[in-house]
Design brief:
- This protein has eight helices and three strands, in the order H-H-E-H-H-H-E-E-H-H-H.
- The protein is mainly alpha-helical.
- It has one domain (3-163).
- Strands 1-3-2 form a three-stranded antiparallel sheet.
- Helix 2 (17-32) packs antiparallel against helix 6 (105-126) and helix 4 (46-62) runs antiparallel to helix 8 (134-163).
- It is globular.
- The chain starts with a helix and ends in a 9-residue tail after the last helix.
- The model has no long low-confidence stretch (mean pLDDT 84).
Length: 172
């Protein structure tokens, strides 16, 4: 076995099992978003809640010194996510339910966040000098925050539909 393959095998072997379970769950949720679905509001908010917890854990793990970079990343990603959510992709239905049009963005975003966070953690474990480099440290903090913000901005655009005032019916 080559040294590179051995290194990859060691990294994978030392990854806690719960990480693989979490990644699998998030990818399954992302795959479910590729189909049209009708859900109650609380189910729509599960995935954004997980992404928010990951973003908060990034702040805690990266240290308070990175907080401004993370906030800028969240704001930039949130603004982009708000604009990326297509008009008409979410419809409010009676009974507090939402109809979401299927899309692939969620799966792609989740995969990018997971890969980036995993690589950042691997680098922290095997190359502490690179991990301590301010450009690397702040760059990965910004990138993960921006991807999380993108997801949260799209969710905010969906919630806008959920909480918008009802239009008067045409028969009134």
């Amino acid at each position: 076995m080559s040294a590179s393959l051995h290194s990859v095998a060691v990294v994978i072997a030392h990854t806690p099992v719960w990480v693989w379970g979490l990644y699998a769950l998030l990818l399954v949720l992302g795959l479910r978003r590729t189909r049209d679905v009708t859900l109650p509001l609380w189910r729509v908010l599960i995935l954004p809640a997980v992404v928010t917890v990951l973003a908060v854990s990034s702040v805690i793990g990266a240290g308070l010194g990175t907080l401004p970079v993370i906030l800028v990343g969240l704001a930039a990603g949130g603004a982009a996510g708000w604009r990326l959510e297509p008009a008409g992709a979410t419809r409010r239905l009676p009974g507090g339910r939402l109809r979401l049009r299927g899309e692939w963005w969620t799966l792609l975003q989740l995969a990018l966040v997971l890969v980036l966070r995993y690589l950042a953690n691997v680098v922290a474990a095997i190359d502490p000098v690179l991990h301590a480099n301010p450009a690397w440290h702040l760059g990965t903090a910004f990138a993960t925050a921006a991807l999380s913000g993108l997801f949260l901005g799209r969710t905010a655009a969906r919630l806008r539909v959920c909480f918008a005032p009802a239009l008067p019916s045409a028969s009134a």
